[in-house]
Known about the structure:
Blueprint: H1 2-16, H2 24-43, H3 50-77, E1 89-96, E2 101-102, E3 106-115, E4 122-128, E5 147-155, H4 168-174, E6 180-183, E7 190-193, H5 199-217, H6 224-232, H7 240-249, H8 259-279, H9 288-291, H10 294-312, H11 317-334, H12 341-355, H13 363-379, H14 384-392, H15 404-408, H16 411-433, H17 435-442, E8 444-446, H18 449-473, H19 476-501, E9 507-509, H20 515-528, H21 545-548, E10 560-564, E11 573-576, E12 581-584, H22 596-608, E13 612-618, H23 623-626, H24 629-635, E14 637-643, H25 650-654, E15 658-660, E16 666-669, E17 672-678, E18 697-701, E19 706-709, H26 715-724, E20 733-735, H27 747-753, E21 757-760, H28 773-781, E22 785-788, H29 789-792, E23 795-799, E24 803-807, H30 808-811
Parallel strand pairs: 4-6, 12-13, 13-14, 14-15, 19-20, 20-21, 21-22
Antiparallel strand pairs: 1-3, 1-5, 2-3, 3-4, 5-6, 5-7, 8-9, 10-11, 10-23, 11-12, 16-17, 17-18, 18-19, 23-24
Amino acid sequence: MRCAILGLIGGVAWLQAQAVLPDAGVQLACALSAASAVLAGARVERQALAFLRAGLAVTAGALAGFAWAAFIAQGALSNELAKSEEGSDFDVVGTVDSLPSRQDNSIRFNFAVESPSDVPPRIVLSWYSGARAGSGAPPPDLLPGERWRLKVRLQRPHGNANPYGFDYELWLLEQGIRATGYVRAEGRNERLSGFVATPHNAIERARHAIRERINAALPDARYAGVIAALAMGDQRGISQQDWQVFSRTGISHLVSISGLHITMIAGLVAWLVGWLWGKSLFMPEWQLRLLLPAARLAVSAGFLAAWGYVALAGFGVLAQRTLYMLAVVALAVWLDRLSAISHVLALAAGVVVILDPWAVMWPGFWLSFGAVAAILYATVGRMSLAGAAASAGALPVAAADASLGSWRDAPWLTRMRENLRLAAVTQLAVTVGLVPLTMLLFSQVSIVSPLANAIAIPVVSLLVTPLALAGSVLPDPLAAPVLRCAHWLLEALLDLLQWLSAQPLAVWSAPTPGWPTFAFALAGTAWMLAPRGWPLRWLGLACWLPLLSARTESPPPGVLRAIAFDVGQGMAILIETNQHRLLYDTGPAYTPETNGGNRVILPYLRARGINMLDGMIVTHSDSDHAGGALAILRDIRTGWVLSSLPAGHPIVQAAPQHAHCVAGQKWEWDGIRFEMLHPSAASYDDPSLKPNARGCTLRIATRYGSMLLPADIEAPQEAALVAAMPEKLHAGVLLVPHHGSGTSSTPAFLAAVQPLHGIFQLGYRNRYHHPRADVLQRYVERGVAIWRTDQSGAISIDIGAEQQLSAYRQQRARYWHGR
């Protein structure tokens, strides 16, 4: 069974790497082949052929998983919005299907559509206020389960596509969401019903009530969002700064409804119910335990308690894993069949991927099951002897001796020591066992994680979480003090964790390893965690050296490498030479908490093992160019900043060294020449100029070719450059000025540049309607190769002996990307 489930997971993961879904014929052939492999395995009876039987089981599971995942994906994609209807308005009726998330001037929520039938059954909507909505009225307070009639404008699911970035389109597919959009202010938007009674709506309304109670009890409390995450799984109130602390200290798994918390609640309820039932409390004459064994009722009650807690969490992967493991244990108790823990873990993993084939695409799946697997490998069957001895009181204790020595050797103290030892070994197993996987998924590992978890696990699991849950259900006079107590404990803990996070060696970072390096490190980890007596276990540590000491890949001397990120409507380009790196613009600000810096650029830099930028250029103050700068300056060591920003700007104040961009600035890195062409020094004395007019324009030249980055300059600045320095404008690769707006890319400018490739950095269906059709036509008529981040994702550029450009969506095509 375990081999078949491993094959099933592999087959599901194989399907998720496909650019195109297999048709029904291929799915049927895979299913029939899986059945044939099962029958062939059943005929293999000789013990000597066990490997053959295992191989057939893996093959059958892989084929079945591939066919099943394809079938589920085909059904999910069949509900998507038609391409021809993007940008159309619809009058929809349906219910608020999730906890609404409110920002400064908008509210975002899932909407379950009841009519019309040509709209996908589940969509994501934003309801704006202010100029963007066409009305100054704020959006109404929405409650889960309300039925509304709304006028909405929809588009197909679309997200930024970058190496090592979050795949928003995949996340929407997993949630069953096949269109996104916003509420039109001029529509007939009205509430039709206060609550539509369904189990899902009841759960979401309960989650909303708990969140409101926590917010009311903890107004303006810094960690109210963490308390809400622990009580009902809503993590949207946690700030990016706090997430960084959790990540650097390795306790992110605790800041949610995790397996540890679910097991604790299930165990407590099971023990209480089993004890009451076994004692036949309140009804001793009934002898209830003779009607139904206490163990069966206890595991059922524990499972139901776990299910309710997992429902509050929104059925996350970590929560699902624990729930399904508890379900298998409960079933084994009811059937009087004790199952090996490895079978329980395998069954839970199989159930997760059957119900949610996309779970294998998220780090939580692998970290969750990997942690349990590491614990089992490192502990099961190796701790029982001492534990049994302690439980039986077999250690030599003189009953009549009341001395301190005999007190120390008392069985209860021995059991406590054994439990502490087992907890330490378990923590060590998780820490060591997950190092290769953590480096593969996040390109970093927390050095302070063992210490942080040793402190945080008991505080969060035994104190903060129970208090948060109690405060969520207690009546009002009691709820507030309990929640404040939980927040006080959490605040004290996180003050300590912030100090740990700030230590210079809190985190070890290295580039994301390749599969051979990962496999080698994983083998070394298994060697280190092998049973005592295994020869030279410390040698397993040597297998980590390629993983932890990898160097960042750089282009050869004289070669220029760049990547134009897909940041939506904005600009951000990382430029690399053999020994230096320059960031040109930093992408937009999406919300007060998120921006192109922390959502796109920083994950890429971490995955590449880049922990320093030699320089940063912020071309001008518009938020689509400067929105991510502060996040990057806060997290990545940066040598200097060039910009056209005024002296009091926050970016200027945060820069370690700042200077204005001025035409004539030049430097050379590794045989590659950089020259600033615009703005002039005199332009800073002209208050009438817009920020676009002072956009820092940079030309980069190699002996093989050149690249021109003109920011958002417009026709007057283009004309000035053509008149003053036409010989310096020629470039094979051009970052199209101002995202292809009608104010730039004049014919004279294009004639001077003579680009072979034009890169349009812009947002999908952006509200500015960039690029303008006539501007785009100018490039087409000149035979320029068009590269658009809204269609192709991030664009990689190599200017060497051969000029090569590639698009991320073509290099890593997936079946759920815009078809």
